[in-house]
Amino acid sequence: MSAPTDDAFDDAAIARLRLAAEEVAWLTGRGYAIDTVGEIVAAHHSLSAAQRAALACGTCSEPQYRRRAARELEPEDVARRPLAIDAVDAVSAVEAALSGRPVLQTLDGTVRALGVERTSYKPGSHADAAIDRLVSAAKELRPSMLRFYVDEPAKELAERIASRAKGPKIETKVVPSAPAALRKEPQIVTAEAASLDACAAWCNLVGRIVETIPNAKIVRLQ
Length: 222
Fold this sequence. Notes:
Elements: H1 11-28, H2 34-44, H3 49-58, H4 62-71, E1 72-73, E2 83-86, H5 87-99, E3 103-105, E4 111-113, H6 127-140, E5 146-151, H7 155-164, E6 170-175, H8 178-182, E7 188-189, H9 193-198, E8 202-203, H10 205-211, E9 218-220
Parallel strand pairs: 1-8, 2-5, 2-7, 3-9, 5-6
Antiparallel strand pairs: 3-4
Helix pairs in contact: 1-2, 1-3, 2-3, 5-6, 6-7
């Protein structure tokens, strides 16, 4: 999916999208298949391709939401334990917010970039600033080890992180699949749905960072 235009998420569109997300969550929580529900609800609200994509990656069922909420960590809970970050997911979201592009706040409160494909992501002009913000915010949590997991196709991002995130307690790891690697970690930072459902605990670090960016364009499904 290409990056959305601003008019795809004007006030009226966001209102329709938020209502659609509520309907998808309600129906999937009662056993209806999310793919089928998503298509029906999107058609009912005449959502565009970009809005449909946002609905698909931004919704979850009510049981999923409750399980994720129960495992969300407060900042003070991270200290003295390792923290693993989904690098493409996190950097792309902060980068988009810094550049003035819309970012999506999903039903579980996580924030992600719109129109970003994990397998083809290339860091843009705001990527270094995004990395700096992530590293600074993560260090404030005082983890015992900070690990950035980078998908193999995004090696340029791995190089940038390694050059800017230095220290004895910081690692940058290039792996075939960052989500797969994250599922083996005790505490993670990601907005990727399957990882959130499988993890032991997660921290909404990206959401907290984006909220501090002046004039960030946040499409809120909550």
